[in-house]
Amino acid sequence: MEYSKEFKAALSAFTGAEKDKLIFRLLRKDKLLSKKLYFELIDPETTDDKRNAMEDHVQEQVLLASKYVGNAKYFLTIIRKISAEITEHVKITTDKFGEATLNLLLINKVLNSNSDFSRQRFDNVYKLYIYIINKVFKSLVLIKKLDEDYWMEIDEYLRETLSKILENHYLQKLCINNGLDFNWFECDKIPENIDQIMKEIKSQGFLR
């Protein structure tokens, strides 16, 4: 939304007390903004602290969720909620490095249940597998936007992801069928236009 000069001038004319009242009213309605301002203004924790805490949280929550692996639909619902918490962390901290690594961590911890997935009908785990493949693609897009100084650390996550995918025959085949090239699991081999590649694959009806 564009704000006119007149509107900005009218806001500037508010007294200090009026501005405080307006700010607190807005913050009560926007919890995410409230958390973001708290982090930026007075939170003693750094972005690294928040990321480390989120790493622990992701691992703990996926472990708790693993007892529901037999119900792939419900399990996926829980994983989506954990993913939403990662998204909130990124919006609060603008942690672009964490956005890539936390999502890869989530994938890797989910794939710790490979043996449980393999005992289920493919139809039951199909949506979960497609969700994972989409997550990998989005992570590759995020990685390509990061400074190369981060790549060595991220390569460790990617190697683990690829290893776990290759342990799962059906997931491996589904990755290939949906255009995910296993050569891309090294940062310097991710195509410059990975975002366009993903869009093109989706336009052809894949990743769904």
Question: Your description of this structure?
Answer:
- Helices cover 73% and strands 0% of the residues.
- The protein has 208 residues and is an all-alpha fold.
- α4 runs parallel beside α6 and α5 runs antiparallel to α6.
Q: How far is the first residue's CA from the last residue's CA?
A: 33 Å
The tally of strands reads 0
Cα radius of gyration in angstroms = 21 Å
The major pleated sheet works out as: none
Order of helices and strands, N to C?
HHHHHHHHHHH
Give a quick set of tags describing it.
208 residues, mainly alpha, 73% helix, 0% strand
In short:
Helices cover about 75% and strands about 0% of the residues.
Write the layout of secondary structure elements.
Blueprint: H1 5-12, H2 16-29, H3 31-41, H4 47-65, H5 72-93, H6 96-110, H7 114-118, H8 122-144, H9 151-166, H10 169-177, H11 194-203
Helix pairs in contact: 3-5, 4-5, 4-6, 5-6, 5-8, 6-8, 6-9, 8-10
